[in-house]
Design brief:
Belongs to the sulfur carrier protein TusA family. This is UPF0033 domain-containing protein. With 80 residues, the protein is α+β, with helices and mostly antiparallel strands. The protein has a single domain, classed as TusA-like domain (Translation Initiation Factor IF3, 2-Layer Sandwich). The protein is built from two helices and four strands. It has a four-stranded mixed sheet, covered by helices on one side. Strand 3 and strand 4 form a beta hairpin. The protein is globular and about 30 Å long. The N and C termini lie far apart (25 Å).
Length: 80
């Protein structure tokens, strides 16, 4: 699905969920990580890409990778 190779500490499967659930689930996963660790989020909500870009900008967590494959938006965030 994604050729992103850096290891992730957590993965959130938010496929089939609508905003704001993918963001809320990602936020909860990030809260359980150490600074610098990565979380991968799988989402199918068409607005998820834009939502995660805004979330990263507002929270200071880095959006490391984002791509879409077969209707699934894969977002990788690095905990600040």
């Amino acid at each position: 699905m994604s050729d992103f190779q850096e290891p992730v500490a957590a993965e959130v499967d938010a496929r089939g969920m609508n905003c704001p659930l993918p963001i809320l689930k990602a936020k909860k996963a990030l809260a359980g990580l150490n600074s610098g660790e990565l979380v991968r989020v799988l989402a199918t909500d068409p607005s998820a890409a834009r939502d995660f870009q805004a979330f990263a900008a507002q929270t200071g967590n880095a959006l490391v990778d984002q791509r879409e494959a077969e209707g699934v938006i894969v977002t990788v965030l690095r905990r600040r």
